[in-house]
């Protein structure tokens, strides 16, 4: 091998190395392009199908627009039975829960003081009656004497002075009679008052009902000189009254005769139906909140309702029956001030937007009077649209 061949060999080797690197880079580029194409093709091939719309079935039913409030149940008719005279309770004839009729004896007071007054006034009346009889006899004698004096004076048998004295005696006797009669009337009135007070020693039921409270015990002394002390309370539990507290913003919607129903805490599954009897004009202010009392009478023959129970009252302002019901969010307004519409999913999968007439709505549901049939599928707005508010947000206020 010559020296020139030895010098040429490295140059040839360098050319082969550069060629190999070019082919390697080209191969990497081809691989990368193929991988990108595969990924792109996979995305095109496996692109997810559009999500099915959310729907709800328009079921027929009833819808109410109501005003709610809390109330307290009380007896409609009740009476506080007190003592009209002072004295010690000698006997109580009833206990809480007893049924009484009007006129039944409830309690007795120690009546010895009243009895002594009656005895004294009867004696005084008897004395005045005896005095009256005596004065009546004296009056009869004075009349006879006056007649005799007139005859004697006509015969000039007595003087004029004697005749005038007789006439004056007659007048005095007549005046004495009138005075005694007035005293007798006064004594009789006093006796009648004492007899009435004596009758108050027996405390009787002023009405039929149930003894619901007992505030005194046997042996207790009652002082009726300043205020009438309460002994017990009788209530008619056959008819109860709900005192419902209604906010001033809602009370203008109520009037006598407004239909309603209510439940109690102890029986939430039972509903009582009635109407408003009266809305009291004077409010109660509780923590700067103005509340008006609506009175509701309810029959309680089964005694299921008891005093001071809490009632949740629903005043029915309007009611729609046997109409398709849909969520309020499913109703939107047509563009440019149009009326309410719903989107219906047809059996073939297509959607149809229809105008509807809304009969009634509350905060969550709407009753459709026309434009929609029961059993049809109504499309609900997407979650994003519901959050955004769209044109459904203010629709409830329009209904």
TrEMBL record:
<dbReference type="Pfam" id="PF25917">
    <property type="entry name" value="BSH_RND"/>
</dbReference>
<dbReference type="GO" id="GO:0030313">
    <property type="term" value="C:cell envelope"/>
</dbReference>
<feature type="domain" description="Multidrug resistance protein MdtA-like alpha-helical hairpin">
    <location>
        <begin position="125"/>
        <end position="192"/>
    </location>
</feature>
<dbReference type="InterPro" id="IPR058624">
    <property type="entry name" value="MdtA-like_HH"/>
</dbReference>
<feature type="coiled-coil region">
    <location>
        <begin position="170"/>
        <end position="197"/>
    </location>
</feature>
<keyword id="KW-0175">Coiled coil</keyword>
<feature type="domain" description="CusB-like beta-barrel">
    <location>
        <begin position="242"/>
        <end position="314"/>
    </location>
</feature>
<keyword id="KW-0813">Transport</keyword>
<dbReference type="InterPro" id="IPR058627">
    <property type="entry name" value="MdtA-like_C"/>
</dbReference>
<dbReference type="GO" id="GO:0015562">
    <property type="term" value="F:efflux transmembrane transporter activity"/>
</dbReference>
<dbReference type="InterPro" id="IPR006143">
    <property type="entry name" value="RND_pump_MFP"/>
</dbReference>
<protein>
    <submittedName>
        <fullName>Membrane fusion protein, macrolide-specific efflux system</fullName>
    </submittedName>
</protein>
<dbReference type="InterPro" id="IPR030190">
    <property type="entry name" value="MacA_alpha-hairpin_sf"/>
</dbReference>
<dbReference type="Pfam" id="PF25967">
    <property type="entry name" value="RND-MFP_C"/>
</dbReference>
<feature type="domain" description="Multidrug resistance protein MdtA-like barrel-sandwich hybrid">
    <location>
        <begin position="79"/>
        <end position="232"/>
    </location>
</feature>
<dbReference type="GO" id="GO:1990281">
    <property type="term" value="C:efflux pump complex"/>
</dbReference>
<feature type="domain" description="Multidrug resistance protein MdtA-like C-terminal permuted SH3">
    <location>
        <begin position="325"/>
        <end position="380"/>
    </location>
</feature>
<dbReference type="InterPro" id="IPR058792">
    <property type="entry name" value="Beta-barrel_RND_2"/>
</dbReference>
<dbReference type="GO" id="GO:1990195">
    <property type="term" value="C:macrolide transmembrane transporter complex"/>
</dbReference>
<dbReference type="InterPro" id="IPR058625">
    <property type="entry name" value="MdtA-like_BSH"/>
</dbReference>
<comment type="similarity">
    <text>Belongs to the membrane fusion protein (MFP) (TC 8.A.1) family.</text>
</comment>
<dbReference type="GO" id="GO:0019898">
    <property type="term" value="C:extrinsic component of membrane"/>
</dbReference>
<dbReference type="Pfam" id="PF25876">
    <property type="entry name" value="HH_MFP_RND"/>
</dbReference>
<dbReference type="GO" id="GO:1990961">
    <property type="term" value="P:xenobiotic detoxification by transmembrane export across the plasma membrane"/>
</dbReference>
<dbReference type="Pfam" id="PF25954">
    <property type="entry name" value="Beta-barrel_RND_2"/>
</dbReference>
């Amino acid at each position: 091998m010559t020296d020139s061949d030895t010098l040429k060999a490295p140059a040839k080797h360098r050319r082969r190395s550069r060629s190999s690197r070019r082919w390697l880079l080209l191969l990497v580029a081809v691989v990368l392009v193929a991988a990108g194409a595969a990924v792109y093709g996979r995305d095109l091939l496996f692109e997810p199908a559009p999500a099915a719309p959310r729907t709800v079935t328009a079921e027929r039913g009833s819808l109410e627009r109501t005003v709610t409030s809390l109330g307290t149940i009380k007896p409609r008719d009740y009476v506080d039975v007190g003592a009209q005279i002072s004295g010690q309770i000698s006997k109580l004839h009833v206990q809480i829960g007893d049924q009484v009729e009007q006129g039944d004896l409830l309690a007795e007071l120690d009546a010895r003081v009243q009895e002594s007054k009656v005895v004294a006034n009867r004696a005084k009346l008897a004395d005045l009656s005896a005095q009256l009889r005596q004065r009546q006899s004296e009056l009869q004698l004075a009349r006879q004497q006056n007649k005799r004096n007139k005859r004697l004076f006509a015969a000039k048998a007595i003087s004029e002075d004697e005749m005038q004295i007789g006439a004056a005696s007659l007048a005095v006797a007549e005046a004495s009679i009138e005075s005694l009669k007035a005293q007798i009337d006064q004594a009789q009135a006093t006796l009648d008052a004492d007899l009435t007070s004596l009758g108050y020693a027996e405390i009787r039921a002023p009405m039929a009902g149930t003894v619901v409270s007992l505030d005194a015990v046997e042996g207790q002394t009652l002082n009726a000189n300043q205020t009438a002390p309460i002994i017990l309370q009788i209530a008619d539990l056959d008819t109860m009254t709900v005192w419902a507290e209604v906010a001033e913003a809602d009370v203008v919607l109520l009037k006598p005769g407004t239909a309603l129903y209510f439940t109690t805490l102890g029986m939430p599954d039972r509903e009582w139906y009635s109407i408003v009897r009266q809305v009291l004009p004077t409010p109660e202010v509780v923590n700067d909140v103005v509340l008006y009392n609506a009175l509701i009478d309810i029959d309680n023959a089964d005694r299921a309702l008891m005093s001071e129970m809490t009632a949740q009252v629903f005043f029915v302002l309007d009611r729609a029956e046997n109409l398709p019901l849909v969520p309020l969010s499913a109703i939107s307004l047509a563009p440019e001030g149009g009326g309410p519409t719903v989107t219906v999913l047809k059996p073939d999968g297509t959607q149809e937007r229809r105008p509807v007439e809304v009969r009634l709505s509350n905060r969550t549901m709407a009753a459709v009077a026309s434009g929609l049939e029961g059993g049809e599928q109504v499309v609900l707005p997407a979650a994003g649209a519901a959050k955004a508010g769209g044109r459904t947000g203010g629709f409830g206020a329009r209904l």
